[in-house]
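Sequence, structure tokens reproduced for absentees:
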Amino acid sequence: MTEELAARLERLDAAAGPAAERFDAGGPLGRTAAVLPSAFNPPTHAHQHLLERALETFGISSAIALLTTRNVDKGLHGAPLADRVGMLLALGEAFPGLAVMAANQARIIDQAVALALLLPGVELDFVVGFDTLERLFAPRYYTDMEGELAPFFARHRILAANRGEVEAARVRKWLDANVVQFRPRIEVLEIDEFPASLSSTQVREALRSDQEALHVAPAVRRYIEERGLYR
């Protein structure tokens, strides 16, 4: 299976323009979907909690875990991309209805274009942590930041979550101080303290030291162990 997934991901990454592909065998999505773009290296309880809380808080009908084959700041390390798709498919055991997708774009605004081509008619809200929120509004990633962000915010919302030491109040304060034009299109998503503190880095370190508390779904842990990942 991983060879087939790897081939599909290679074709996706080589596509000339923005493109996305779905890997799970689920049915059609609802009218609205929460999209969590991430490296999923590996997918943790925090990823699952972010999507579940987004659906509960804002009445969104579908959840999309979006693996990105490119990253604006990071190179590829850890599990191969095909195994990350495999782990997300395994996560579906604990998260029924989870749509597993990948896109060949690093910036969220370009991922949105790719998903809109794949999912016409679905309203997409993008779930981000505080570090991703800051990158979204970092001028170094744009030629004309406001001009490039305007079409994105005309179609989509951002759901900005508290993560780690960055509490929801601090997220709101940062938004009020740094975002003016697009502030009405950004909602703050409050998640519980424990999942907010989790990171994929912690899970990888726990695996390397053979710790028991991995903070991943049982099916994801089985996949990791069977594939010998992060050793």
Notes: Strands lie at 20-22, 32-38, 62-68, 99-103, 123-128, 157-161, 186-189. The mean pLDDT is 93. The longest helix spans residues 45-58.
